[in-house]
Design goal:
heterodimer; A: mainly beta; Immunoglobulin-like; 2 domains; four-stranded mixed β-sheet; 19 strands; B: Cytochrome Bc1 Complex, Chain D, domain 2; 0% strand
């Protein structure tokens, strides 16, 4: 009887100790990206020029310029540390961009400058990948079915629009950043930037239609900081 | 009577002022004219005496003067293609807008896609001009003048300081334009889907043709082989080879160098020549002779992928 009364508090104390000491106290910045106003209505994509894709996507997919989620959430917003970080090395593991059913997957791919980028095709017809940068060299390569992935990288930070000229509805972005702390919001508008040492940071959010927003935030020694962004949307695209 | 000398003195002073100031005004005006005239004369003299054919080194300062005279109207004072004439170029009618030199992205290159062109590539472009655009051939300028202009073009983008031109692609000797080569080229044309833009008969009327835009968002047309016109980047088989292996940067035409082997590329060149029906090319003659002996054997191009 008496042993049980002693054992339980000891166990409880041990659990508390493990919980507080166990995981490394790396800071995290989390938050949600939402919008105010009326977002544009995305049109269904007409893929009739590529019958295989039209058949695959029935009912047709909608454009991805502005994608919203429940509770005014805004998807495909790139959130990243734009200032305050110590110089970061580009990771050596490649990021992957897919062409699947006449769509780019993911719609927006974030990467570090000089990080290897691999572009795959999964489709039984030819695509051309045409990134249109302003601060990096522009190129345009064809990729027939079964072709090897294209290996490349970008030296300068920039949001690069990517297009397939053969299938003009295929449209996406490479978010080339000077940081490895980035995230693209999910359908609920959530993002999280993990593994940040304590310090003062500038967090920037970029949406392809509505430009960028920045906020300053301080991450404490054990802390998690919360930064939310609200984009004012317009009912038309530009 | 006593007041008169004062009036005389004033009158004389005003006359002196009038004559003293006038000549300087005139001089300033004449100076401009003399300056321009001398430069034009110089360029003619250089052309005549051959003095201008020289070191082959482009001089951007001399190039700037030539640029102001010949290029600024379309390519603009900042080299970004926004000259005062640019607004009259209608891309919907097939007339491309003037090139924006600040991006240093060029169609006609011997170098891989994404790299800067060589000095010769730019020299050839200036010399050749561009078919179906407002860019004429600048062959009337001396070689040195064209070289100086290229030095000026390069001054518009910092890329020319930061990067080196790409290594030109190697073009193997041309293979024989046999029926086998043409037929294999036809297979390639179908397989890599050139017809998506250029059309099954090369008429520039493929399913994606009407949606094409260049990097600046202006409409652009795929080449219509049946017109038999020169290509934008040359007229020879070598030029044709180079066009699809390097791609025309800034346009929807991609590079196929990763997907066509060099020996196959000549087959594609030979087939493309058969599409130029108005030119009556030797490749077309070979192909037509073969077709007469083999009716209804070829699968039409551009059928649905199984």
């Amino acid at each position: 009887m008496q042993a049980r009364y002693v054992l339980l508090p000891v166990l409880f104390a041990l659990m508390v100790a493990v919980a507080s000491v166990g995981p490394a106290p790396a800071g995290t910045i989390e938050g949600k990206v939402t919008y105010t106003g009326t977002p544009p209505k995305m049109k269904p994509i007409d893929m009739s020029k590529e019958p295989t894709c039209a058949k695959e996507h029935n009912p047709p997919l909608l454009g991805e310029n502005v994608v919203t989620g429940p509770g005014n959430a805004l998807q495909y917003v790139v959130v990243y540390i734009s200032a305050g970080e110590q110089s970061a090395q580009p990771p050596s593991e490649p990021v992957r961009y897919d062409q699947k059913g006449c769509m780019y997957v993911p719609h927006i791919l974030a990467m570090h400058t000089n990080q290897p980028l691999q572009i795959y095709t999964d489709d039984p017809f030819t695509h051309n990948i045409h990134p249109m940068p302003k601060r990096n060299p522009e190129w345009n390569k064809s990729q027939p079915p079964g072709a090897a992935p294209i290996d490349t990288k970008w030296a300068n930070p920039e949001f690069i629009e990517v297009k397939c000229n053969i299938h003009p509805w295929m449209h996406g972005y490479f978010a080339v950043l000077n940081t490895s702390h980035y995230a693209v919001t999910d359908n609920e508008g959530n993002y999280s930037l993990k593994g940040l040492p304590p310090g003062k940071y500038t967090v920037t959010a970029w949406q392809e239609q509505y430009s960028t927003q920045s906020q300053e935030v301080t991450v404490g020694p054990t802390g998690a900081a919360s930064v939310n962004f609200v984009f004012k949307v317009t009912p038309y695209l530009y | 009577m006593k007041r008169k000398p004062v009036f005389v003195a004033l009158f004389a002073a005003s006359l002196i002022l009038l004559f003293a100031t006038r000549p300087t005004e005139c001089f300033a005006q004449i100076d401009i004219h003399i300056h321009t005239a001398t430069n034009t004369m110089e360029s003619h003299i250089h052309g005549l005496t051959g003095e201008a054919f020289g070191d082959g080194q482009g001089r951007p300062d001399v190039g700037a003067q030539l640029y102001r005279r010949y290029c600024i109207g379309c390519h603009g004072p900042n080299g970004d293609g926004s000259g005062e004439n640019a607004m009259w170029f209608d891309p919907t009618m097939g007339f491309a807008k003037p090139r924006d030199f600040t991006l240093a992205v060029f169609k006609c290159r011997s170098t891989p896609t994404g790299t800067l062109p060589t000095e010769e590539d730019l020299f050839d472009s200036v010399t050749r001009g561009f078919v179906n655009t407002n860019m004429p051939s600048w062959r009337p300028l001396t070689e040195q003048e064209r070289t100086n202009l290229i030095a000026m073009v390069k001054a518009f983008s910092p890329r020319w300081q930061a990067e080196k031109p790409g290594a030109p692609i190697t073009i193997p000797p041309e293979t024989a334009p046999t029926v086998e080569s043409i037929l294999h080229g036809r297979e390639l044309f179908d397989k890599i889907q050139c017809w998506k833009c250029h059309g099954p008969e090369g008429r520039g009327d493929g399913p994606s043709a009407l949606t094409l835009t260049d990097t600046k968002g202006n409409p652009i047309r795929p080449y219509d082989f049946t017109t038999g016109e020169r290509f934008k980047c040359g007229a020879s088989n070598q030029d044709l080879y180079r066009i699809f292996m390097t791609g025309l940067d800034g346009t929807p035409m991609p590079s196929f160098s990763d997907n066509i082997k060099p020996e196959e590329a000549w087959d594609l060149v030979h087939f493309l020549r058969t599409l130029q029906v108005t030119l009556k090319t030797p490749e077309l003659a070979t192909f037509q002779t073969w077709l007469k002996g083999h009716p209804n054997t070829l699968k039409p191009i551009g059928q649905e992928v199984p």
